[in-house]
Design a protein that fits this description.
The protein is of the alpha/beta class. Helices cover about 40% and strands about 20% of the residues. The longest helix is centred in the last third of the chain and has 18 residues. Bound molecules: NADP nicotinamide-adenine-dinucleotide phosphate. NADP nicotinamide-adenine-dinucleotide phosphate (NAP) binds next to α1, α2 and α4.
């Protein structure tokens, strides 16, 4: 089973994905700028399933077979750029959303290349960038008993990499992988996260995306 490293994995988003990857048997490394912090965060997590969750520096996470970027948007490029050589030849999943708060709402920020996934693809020319996990509420992901039943919209210009990521996501409890298409869809998919979070703030909810009308 592939090992999975999560850059910025000590935050709620990374922990939530890690919890579900470990259930199905992946060994996950939560990466951090500070190894000791990652070790502390990982050891505080209750792991259910055949996999493990350990903590390490971001470069230990980058050494895994599959790597997820889960830092805030404004530090994602600097984080991956310093790891470019280690990430070459690998599939790198971006779950990064560029958002800012305006009053009671979150609104999208559009980076120069239209999306964070496209920015990452530019920063990592020798990696296959796949977008996934953007719309998932982190606390419900980490709580394996939350009953979440969400779709994960997946996009990439690398057809094989997005199929591979879909196969990983499809095994995760509570999640269905839906391949949306190419990197051209990154901007609306990332921006839609602002809609999800604004709805959650307004309705005091933890909603998520589920596409109706798809044949299983
Ligand atoms: N929260 C959600 O529900 C959710 C859901 C889907 C997608 N996302 C996306 O996932 C990403 C992470 O979300 P989050 O809520 O987990 O964010 P977060 O808690 O603010 O940050 C995640 C981790 O990134 C690291 N980090 C913070 N500032 C950094 C910097 N300047 N340079 C390098 N690393 C830094 C920190 O780890 P260390 O201090 O240990 O290095 C932190 O624990 C975001 O892009 C977000 O849009 C979030």
């Amino acid at each position: 089973m592939e090992t999975v490293g999560i850059l910025g994995g000590t935050g709620p988003a990374g922990r939530g994905v890690a919890a579900r990857l470990a259930v199905v048997g992946h060994d996950v490394v939560l990466g951090s700028r500070e190894e000791s912090r990652a070790i502390e965060v990982a050891s505080a997590m209750s792991v259910r399933g055949a996999g493990t969750i350990t903590g390490g520096a971001n470069d230990a996470a980058a050494a895994c077979d599959l790597v997820i970027v889960a830092t805030p948007w404004d530090s994602a490029i600097a984080t991956v750029t310093s790891l470019r050589a280690q990430l070459a030849g690998k599939t790198v999943i971006s779950m990064v959303n560029a958002l800012t708060r305006e009053g009671r709402e979150l609104v999208p920020i559009y980076p120069p290349r239209g999306s964070m996934a496209a920015q990452l693809a530019f920063a990592l020319p020798d990696s296959a960038i796949v977008g996934a996990f953007h719309h998932l509420p982190a606390a419900q992901m980490e709580d394996l008993d939350s009953g979440i039943d969400a779709d994960v919209l997946i996009f990439s210009d690398d057809a094989q990499a997005r199929e591979d990521v879909a196969a990983v996501v499809h095994r995760l409890p509570g999640l269905r992988a839906v391949i949306a298409g190419s990197m051209s869809l990154a901007s609306p998919i990332e921006a839609f996260t602002a809609v999800c979070i604004s709805i959650n703030i307004r309705h005091k909810a933890h909603s998520y995306v589920k596409m109706a009308g798809l044949v299983e």
